[in-house]
Model the fold of this input.
Amino acid sequence: MTKSSLHMLKGVGYVISTASVILLAIVSWSSASKSIALTACLVGGAALSIVGMFCRWLTYEIENSRNDEKDKSPALRQARPNGGKNRPNAL
Done:
């Protein structure tokens, strides 16, 4: 898989997880709406889950951009084995 297709797959996974949380919250709404505490738990839990997925995605993006910056530096590429590529040395 190419780097961009892995990036796309990760993004699609987070969108699917977010949609799943929303759908589960919709299904649970009729029961949860009968109690203020249950409503707060449902809304809070769904929001925290989505915020958590966003934080994981953002961390991935930051790490990915840092790795891209490192790979663009000629001095760092030459200092790494295999010119900065993640492949083992041939024996």
Notes: DSSP finds three helices and no strands in the chain. Residues 52 and 58 are 10 Å apart (CA to CA). The helical segments are 3-32, 36-72, 74-79. The chain has a mean pLDDT of 83.
